[in-house]
């Protein structure tokens, strides 16, 4: 039995703690905030409730495995409800489209009905290619720890497999090979943002994201997805895991192997193993500032940071006819959005708030998240550059957040969802707020992006160069999003068992 400290009670840290506790280890979780959950949070006010992080669960098998490995099945703890439609899309061409949650064939039928038979056939062909990429990459790149160049060499033994994955091709490039309708290409581009990335630079392998969503379904938990984190917390506690909130860690102690951590209070906690669930950049730059963290910092410095998000939580009176759980309002110029967010193209070196952004709305028809049946709680998100006052965007600039929120509400009105006269109150969360709340660098949602053909190999590994130190969560391998964070916890639990 090892003494294990988990730094950070986000979903990755909690999942790893539950798995390690079930294996018989002595586990303590240290969380700097007053509550657990990390980015998977909940805000309640005046009878309204808002998920402040993910609003959709895909690939639930990852969490079914977690619950089975640690006790009773997932469905004994939580109710998973399929969302249908998965999402409603409004395109600049005027097309409106519901994407059904009844499998890949249903998605192709929806495209056929909207744009003609060829669009349906194109999407079927694209999905078939995405399925092939999934089959080739799932085990070596998602369910196993990366083994440096050897992981890539294993794929390279078969030239046909390399051609299928096409590491030289971007997600945008893959879409152009299969999809002729601009609406379908725009639809595909959005999936790059699931990893905080630019579709023009993100690898074609991200085609696996829509493949997973359409093949394994889209799910919701009544009462909010924050309950997934709460249920995992309960499971960890049931195995004797200790969770200490409001306990920020100042330093990971290692010389040369892990010895424990020092809290900001000065208390030193010894450990045989430390599992870091905080952003990798925070770990290697702040918690390991000396030479022991130099190798990790080199990895971080090579990777492009992910995008962030500007969020409004809207408490609305009245109901919206025909409102879906998820709605996406696309802009006229998607490339301009990515240029603003990443400081590329016309915005080279100067990221800025997006002038004409994609607007994402999550508005669950959930009685547990509103005071009564005559109100709605909306989570509104637009992609945004990170908070970086020194060289980029300063989201703490006076009046910026409020004026930008007003602009987004005006854009929503022009695109057919005018809620300005129904607004009771709003809460704004900028990338700067996200950085303060979660200690993610600049409020980067996913740590590093997947921009670039070698991006998977630039993401920090689950086993660090320091003996006894492991990384879990969205900023480490295999990446961000609920399924991948859950997979990272499974990988780390297995690595610790073999350490």
From TrEMBL:
Gene3D superfamilies hit by this protein: FAD/NAD(P)-binding domain
Lineage: Bacteria, Bacillati, Actinomycetota, Actinomycetes, Kineosporiales
Top-rank taxon, per record: Bacteria
Record protein name field: Phytoene desaturase
Molecular function, one GO term: oxidoreductase activity
Pfam families named among the record's database cross-references: Amino_oxidase
Annotated family: Belongs to the carotenoid/retinoid oxidoreductase family.
Keyword annotations of the record: Carotenoid biosynthesis, Oxidoreductase
Pathway: Carotenoid biosynthesis
InterPro entries listed in its UniProt record: Amino_oxidase, Carotenoid/retinoid_OxRdtase, FAD/NAD-bd_sf
Domain Amine oxidase per the UniProt entry, residue ranges: 11-489
Gene Ontology annotations of biological process type: carotenoid biosynthetic process
């Amino acid at each position: 039995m090892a003494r294990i400290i988990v730094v950070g009670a986000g979903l990755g840290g909690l999942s790893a703690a539950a798995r390690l506790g079930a294996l018989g280890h002595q586990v303590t979780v240290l969380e700097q905030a007053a509550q657990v959950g990390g980015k998977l949070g909940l805000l309640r006010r005046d009878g309204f409730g808002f998920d402040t992080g993910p609003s959709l669960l895909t690939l639930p098998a990852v969490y079914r495995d977690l619950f089975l490995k640690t006790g009773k099945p997932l469905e004994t703890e939580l109710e998973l409800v399929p969302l249908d439609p998965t999402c409603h899309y409004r395109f600049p061409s005027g097309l409106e489209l519901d994407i059904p949650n009844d499998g890949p064939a249903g998605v192709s039928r929806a495209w056929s009905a909207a744009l003609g038979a060829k669009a349906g056939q194109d999407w079927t062909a694209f999905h078939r290619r995405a399925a092939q990429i999934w089959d080739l990459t799932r085990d070596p790149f998602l369910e196993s720890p990366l083994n440096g160049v050897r992981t890539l060499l294993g794929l390279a033994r078969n030239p046909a497999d390399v051609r299928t994955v096409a590491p030289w091709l971007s997600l945008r490039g893959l879409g152009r090979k299969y999809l002729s309708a601009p609406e379908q290409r725009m639809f595909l581009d959005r999936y790059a943002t699931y990893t905080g990335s630019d579709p023009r630079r993100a690898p074609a392998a991200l085609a696996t994201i829509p493949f997973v969503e359409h093949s394994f379904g889209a799910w919701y938990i009544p009462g909010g997805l924050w309950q997934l984190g709460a249920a995992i917390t309960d499971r960890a506690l049931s195995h004797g895991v200790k969770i200490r909130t409001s306990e920020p860690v100042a330093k990971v102690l290692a010389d040369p192997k892990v010895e424990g951590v020092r809290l900001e209070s000065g208390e030193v906690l010894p450990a045989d193993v430390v599992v870091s669930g905080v952003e990798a950049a925070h770990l290697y730059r702040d918690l390991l500032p000396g030479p022991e963290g130099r190798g990790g910092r080199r990895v971080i410095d090579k990777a492009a940071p992910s995008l962030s998000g500007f969020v409004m939580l809207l408490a609305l009176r009245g109901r919206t006819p025909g409102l879906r759980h998820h709605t996406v309002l696309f802009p006229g110029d998607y490339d301009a959005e990515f240029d603003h967010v990443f400081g590329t193209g016309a915005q080279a070196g100067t990221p800025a708030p997006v002038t004409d952004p994609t607007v994402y709305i999550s508005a669950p028809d959930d009685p547990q998240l509103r005071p009564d049946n005559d109100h709605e709680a909306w989570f509104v998100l637009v992609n945004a550059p990170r908070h970086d006052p020194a060289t980029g965007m300063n989201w703490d600039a006076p009046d910026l957040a409020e004026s930008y929120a007003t602009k987004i509400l005006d854009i929503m009105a022009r695109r057919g969802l005018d809620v300005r006269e129904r607004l009771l109150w709003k809460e704004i969360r900028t990338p700067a707020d996200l950085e303060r709340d979660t200690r993610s660098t600049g409020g980067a949602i996913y740590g590093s992006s997947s921009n670039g053909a070698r991006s998977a190999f630039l993401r920090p590994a689950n086993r660090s160069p320091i003996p006894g130190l492991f990384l879990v969560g969205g900023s480490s391998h295999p990446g961000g999003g609920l399924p991948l964070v859950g997979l990272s916890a499974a990988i780390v639990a297995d690595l610790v068992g073999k350490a």
